[in-house]
Each structure stands twice: as C-alpha cells, then as structure tokens.
Amino acid sequence: MYIAVAGNIGAGKSSLVKLLSETYALSPVYEAVDENPYLEDFYQDMRSYAFASQMFFLARRLEQHIAQVNPGSRIIQDRTIYEDAAIFARNLFEEGIMSKRDFATYQRMYEAIKLALRPPDLLIYLEASVETLKTRIAQRGRAYEQNIEDAYLKRLNVLYETFIAGYDSSDVLIIRADETDFIHNPADSLSLQSRLERFGLVPPLL
Q1: Active site amino acids
Q2: What is the pTM of this model?
Q3: Cα 96 from chain centre
C-alpha cells in the first residue's frame, strides 16, 4: 500500500507521516525541505528563485519515487508531486512570480515525470485554516518560514480545495486539522485509525 499525505505548509503532514509509519510499519518518505538549497532565498525573493526551487523539488520527488515509492510495499509519503504542480508552481505562475515560459517548461517536465510514477492507493488531505497553519509554522521554528504572509497561505488553501475537488487518482480521506489533534489526543488518534481501516490500512501480521 502507498499512502500520500497532502496539505498546506504547517498542516501537520510530517507529524502524521511519523505517527502512521510507526503505527502501521510503513516506510516514511519525507519532503526534502531542508535539502532545497534555494528555499531560504526563495522566501526572501520569490521571483528570482521560484523556478529553481520548484525544479529542485520536482527532481528530488522523482528520485524518491524511483528509489523508495515505486518499489515499496508499505509506503507513506509527505506531500505529493501532484501538489508541487497543481498548487505551488501554479500559484507562482498565477501570481506573476513565475514567468509563462518557466511555468510551461516546468509543466512539460512534470507531465513527463508523472508517467513514471506510481499513484497513491490513498491520499490523506489535512485541511487547515490559515490561523492553524500560522500557529504550527511558529511552533516548529524554521526561521525562513516565519515571515510567510497570510495571503500566500490563503491562496494555497484555495488551490488545495480545487485540487482535492478534482483529484481522482485514488481514494481521498479528508482530515479537518483545526478540529483534530492526533498527536496529543488519544481519542482523535483512535478515531483516525478507525477511519483508515475502512480503506484497508491495518498493521502488518508479525
């Protein structure tokens, strides 16, 4: 089984991936945020570094899929390649930060790469308000994220809603992150596990 976890910046994806990987013996594949050499510069000057940053994520996602996701039997992934294209790169283009030429080149590479990738069996979407996102961004303390504007997170949320509404590559489970604390509230964790079992996710037989 291959599970993908989707959601905006600060929605709680990495925490959920860690929890479910430990609960169900899934191999975690984390987003290469700290590996991106352009990301800190991107948040300071989006126009100059948008294309390079997005291309890094695209290339790294391909590497992860080929090495870990495609051949894996029990995988959970932090953010998908679909989000990179449909939300983050698209937002940069629609806001005039990424040029039409760069976006077309990005899209062409994305469409070619997508053909080689295994689609998820289940997509878990963490839906969160801007207020929740800002709180969690502050809590995790990445310096380059602290000045992310509310308007940017709001635009991404709108694109996420559009993406989820049109997504048809697998089953989708939506978790309302504003109302759920699966890390600190055992009842929420058990409720989540019950919902996941309906999609066929169970601990492996030992």
Answers
A1: 78
A2: 0.91
A3: 23
